[in-house]
Write a structure and sequence with these properties.
Order of helices and strands of chain B: EEEEEH
Number of domains of chain C: 1
Strand order of the largest sheet of chain B: 3-2-1-4-5
Shape of chain B: elongated
Structural class of chain B: alpha+beta
CATH class of chain B: Mainly Beta
Radius of gyration of chain B: 17 Å
Shape of chain C: globular
Largest sheet of chain C: 5 strands, parallel
Strand content of chain B: 25-35%
CATH topology of chain C: Rossmann fold
Helix content of chain B: 10-25%
Largest sheet of chain B: 5 strands, antiparallel
CATH architecture of chain B: Roll
Number of helices of chain B: 1
Number of domains of chain B: 1
Order of helices and strands of chain C: HHEHHEHHEHEHEHEHEHHEHEHEEHHHH
Largest interface: B-C, 40 and 65 residues
CATH class of chain C: Alpha Beta
Oligomer: heterotrimer
Number of strands of chain C: 11
Chains: A alpha+beta (333), B alpha+beta (88), C alpha/beta (379)
Radius of gyration of chain C: 21 Å
Chain lengths: 333, 88, 379
């Protein structure tokens, strides 16, 4: 039967996709399993993607499910170089859901859409009886135009490349976890939800083909994203714990709950794998951008070793970074 | 087998049973970086004061330490470093 | 000088450079101490506590320690040593209508003898909730007066007093729909059973830091006197673990074992008498079945008569049936330190975190889970 782990972005999710979806739907576009699909329409290349949002709680410090739904899909397009053109918005509402809450969420969606410059072009609403959905589920799909003439894919990654991240990791996941565990305090950290297409555009303008690929480390966190990239590219990534930006308060909260920030979701960050020569200039660009609050070069790509991702710890030790089975759980032991 | 972290005590709060719905005993308000959290003091060895640290396990303080106590670990480290340097 | 302000309670120097210098000094001392120990060739040290296992891997310490030192995991993972019968019973509890099972996250995915788990039970409609503290479970009971709430009590002497305090509150406030299923265990008798069997030829023991914060230094005395084991009560930062290892080597070199408190900021020699008092007020020693060690008298904690009305075992008529061993599962040899995970034929093959055959793989602190996740044997 389906378990929560199947939705967590870890190994269980991969298995589900491979065994039940790909086995039936297999086609060259889908099989890439990238953030969005690349379609050739006439002379144009279009990025096309969809995502559903079922987060609980629906309101949290730094945003809400509506904002996530807009920014998340825009980012999926942007990661493949697709400059977003329009979004679709489909709502599934539970009977009894508060109209005030619905308006609040629609306000967020409107705000995010305007801020990003991406209109909601079409939509749909369904209502199901009480108990058949959890308050509100949102699906957004998006299309974007690919303006670059080269693909952004993991297969272009090669030994020597550098790995960059645009800011602190774990903020969104930690925010959600603390709200769920009842650490209901006015926090200083909050969800980092943010649309990143303009940052991607600026980075591509600066360094072009020297950027191998982008990924946004959502479910499963930075660790899962890096492992996926490394496996797909057939390389090993060496990263340094001291270089990975983590907010002190997020780190402390994770310690209390027994969580690891590397595995917690990010909704406003990107990972970029780039040719070594352009790493510094891209870092400088990101440092100037308000869309990249605390960018860093966190590691480099080397020839494929036994483990896909290896980390040098803060004290100079070494450990592998693997994928989780399922969702991270707070622990006491 | 025990995830427990040291957290700094900001204040001690006496609970008003009426307000807390009957949960008795004082709690410590600790700084968790993201804000504040309540930590129960029923089984702590020494009642902490603001400025002390408490080691927290599953919402309860299991040990109170002063900055002097925390220093003890650094004393051990310094000892090791001193010996290592001396014999280099 | 170290920046006390930032590092003050965490036991580690504030800045990265300082940490590395300190770690280098500790490693250098370890190497020197090792040089003065001529035999045996392999020094086998056991780290009893699952949190130590995780910390060692998290910091990549195995990679830094000399090859002569073998760090072995012991039975200090509460989930790993919970008997299959008790796990089955916990899962069966979740089948009871209108019962809310509240548990630490650690227990959620642990498989019982029939391949069930609390996670799977939840998927089938059981009301299973993850809580950070047993007090949250008590609050659940108060918020849901028409339902019963059962908290799964796992953990050793660090956690048992917390649960004891919660039970006292439940009793004082007459929250009669709150129950605890006690799977709690205590360390000293289990350690006695482990070393008296002579199956593990361990020379030194890294003693669990937070258990010691509760029970103090004295309960480990018999390990020195009866079995000649070097003992070091150890903290959880990388530097503190290295300090503990160094202490054990010094003891072996001088051939003078004792109980060395290397975690003085958290552990007083007498421990925490308030916590112990709460524990003894609510629980009494009982016989417990430890996976891998079998039945050990006096190593379990049963709820006393005075608090029996909150005892899930009697209220729900829990019957424990210890099933036959899962064939091929060698968790019992892992937690007694006889083999390391790569030496189990199922490790990384039939047994993975996705498809765990035993608790050592699925527990957040299990030795096998740690080795798997951190690539222990491959780096």
């Amino acid at each position: 039967m389906v378990l929560l782990d199947h939705g967590s972005g870890g190994l269980a999710s991969s298995r589900l996709v491979q065994e039940i979806f790909l086995s039936r739907l297999s086609n060259p576009i889908l099989n890439e399993l990238e953030d969005s699909a690349i379609l050739d329409i006439g002379q144009q290349q279009i990025a096309f993607t969809t995502d559903s949002y079922v987060v609980d709680p629906i309101f949290f410090p730094g945003g809400d499910i509506g904002e996530l739904a807009v920014n998340g899909t825009i980012n999926d397009l942007a990661m493949k170089g697709g400059m977003p053109v329009a979004l679709s918005l489909a709502l599934i509402l539970e009977e009894g859901f508060s109209l005030d809450d619905l308006e609040r969420i629609m306000d967020s969606i409107a705000r995010a859409s305007i801020q990003a410059g991406v209109p909601v072009a079409t939509g749909d609403t369904k209502v199901v009886p009480k108990g058949k959905a959890d308050k509100i589920f949102i699906n957004t799909a998006g299309v974007g135009i690919i303006e670059i003439r080269f693909p952004l894919t993991a297969s272009r990654i090669r030994p020597g490349d550098k790995i960059l991240v645009s800011g602190t990791v774990g903020d969104h996941g930690a925010t959600i976890m603390t709200r769920r565990q009842g650490l209901e305090v006015p926090g200083q950290f909050q969800s980092d939800t943010m649309a990143l297409h303009r940052l991607v555009r600026d980075m591509l303008e600066l360094s072009g083909e020297n950027i191998r690929c982008f990924r946004d480390p959502t479910r499963g966190g930075l660790a899962t994203t890096l492992v996926e990239l490394a496996k797909k590219a057939g390389v090993t990534m060496e990263i340094a714990e001291t270089e990975i930006p983590v907010r002190k308060d997020v780190a402390q909260t994770c310690e209390i709950l027994g969580l690891d920030p590397l595995y917690l979701a990010n909704e406003g960050k990107l990972v970029a794998v780039v040719a070594p020569d352009v790493a510094d200039e891209l870092l400088a660009l990101m440092q100037e951008s308000h869309l990249a609050p605390e960018p860093a070069i966190i590691g480099r790509v080397v020839e494929q070793g036994i483990m896909p991702v290896v980390m040098e710890t803060a004290i100079g030790g070494k450990r592998a970074v693997e994928m989780l089975t399922g969702e991270p759980l707070p622990r006491i032991c | 087998m025990c995830v427990a972290v040291p957290l700094r005590v900001i204040e001690i709060k006496e609970r008003d049973p009426a307000e807390t719905g009957g949960f008795l005993g004082p709690v410590a308000i600790v700084d968790v970086g993201t804000g504040q959290q309540e930590v129960r003091l029923e089984i702590v060895d020494r009642q902490p004061e603001p400025g002390d640290y408490v080691i927290v396990h599953a919402g309860f303080a299991i040990h109170t330490l002063t900055p002097e106590d925390a220093r003890k670990t650094f004393d051990l480290f310094e000892e090791v470093e001193r010996i290592t340097l001396e014999s280099s | 000088m170290m920046n006390l302000q930032d590092g003050i309670a965490s036991g580690q120097p504030a800045d990265a450079r300082r940490r590395r210098d300190l770690v280098k000094a500790l490693l250098l001392s370890i190497h020197r101490q090792l040089a003065s120990i001529s035999s045996p060739q392999k020094i086998r040290l056991m780290e009893v506590c699952g949190t130590h296992t995780m910390s060692i891997f998290k910091h990549g310490l195995r990679h830094l320690l000399p090859d002569r030192i073998e760090l072995i995991s012991g039975p200090g993972c509460p989930v790993c040593v919970t008997s299959p019968g008790q796990i089955d019973a916990a899962i069966k509890l979740s089948d009871i209508p209108d019962l809310i099972v509240a548990t630490f996250g650690d227990m959620l995915r642990v498989p019982g003898s029939q391949g069930q788990s609390l996670a799977k039970a939840r998927a089938r409609g059981a009301d299973v909730r993850i809580v950070y503290s047993p007090v949250d479970a008590l609050q659940l009971a108060r918020d849901n007066p028409d339902r019963n709430v059962c908290f799964l009590g796992i953990g050793f002497e660090t956690t048992a007093p917390v649960v004891a305090a919660t039970l006292k509150m439940a009793s004082q406030l007459s929250v009669n729909n709150f129950f605890v299923y006690s799977c709690h265990k205590t360390m000293p008798n289990a350690l006695e059973a482990l070393f008296s069997s002579k199956e593990s030829d361990v020379q030194g023991l890294l003693c669990p830091g937070h258990v010691s914060a509760i029970i103090g230094e004295q309960p480990y005395g018999f390990l020195v006197e009866k079995y000649g084991l070097a003992c070091a009560i150890t903290g959880f930062e990388a530097e503190e673990i290295l300090l503990g290892v160094l202490s054990l080597l010094k003891q072996l070199a001088s051939k003078y074992p004792f109980v060395d408190n290397c975690y003085p900021r958290a552990v007083s020699p007498e421990g925490n008498p308030s916590a112990v008092a709460a524990l003894e007020q609510v629980f009494q020693p009982s016989t417990a079945v430890w996976r891998g060690l079998g039945s050990i008298p006096g190593s379990g904690l049963a709820i006393r008569q005075q608090f029996k009305r909150h005892d899930a075992e009697s209220h729900f008529g829990i019957e424990i049936e210890e099933p036959n061993k899962v064939s091929g599962c060698r968790c019992h040899r892992i937690i007694t330190g006889q083999i390391i995970p790569p030496e189990c034929p199922m490790f990384r093959k039939a047994c993975t975190p996705e498809n765990p055959m035993g608790p050592c793989m699925v527990s957040s602190e299990g030795a096998c889970a740690a080795w798997f996740k951190y690539g222990g044997e491959r780096l």
